[in-house]
Design goal:
alpha/beta; five-stranded mixed sheet; globular; 4 helices; Transcription Regulator spoIIAA
């Protein structure tokens, strides 16, 4: 599962594609977020329109990433969810807990300083 990263304004943008499922993608998401934090990034945006599947392990990684970033004084936001990801996050009622945006620019603008 490829994770492309780039710096945009005051955030690290991680573009995720493929599957975020147990044994396939879950560890890559964790590693990408942890690396971004280790590099000093506090604002992290996950762009997820390329994610084809998300299972409970993937959901767990998103929640863990959210917690890790918040514990370090930062913010984790999600943008451009694929229909599959949106469906899973709505079913698990995480849409109200995780910061979700339809538009990437809007998500980037929402980060504080």
């Amino acid at each position: 599962m490829p994770v492309r990263e780039r710096d945009e304004n005051n955030a690290k943008v991680l573009e995720i594609s493929g599957r975020i499922t147990i044994g396939k993608g879950d560890v890559e998401v964790r590693d990408a977020v942890q690396l971004a934090l280790a590099e000093g990034n506090r604002n992290i945006l996950l762009v997820m329109d390329g994610v084809a599947a998300l299972d409970s392990a993937g959901v767990g990684e998103l929640v863990a990433a959210h917690t890790s970033v918040r514990n370090r004084g930062g913010a984790l936001k999600l943008a451009r969810l694929s229909p599959k990801v949106a469906s899973v996050l709505q079913a698990t009622r995480l849409v109200g807990i995780l910061d979700v945006y339809d538009d990437e620019k809007e998500a980037l603008d929402s980060f504080e300083g």
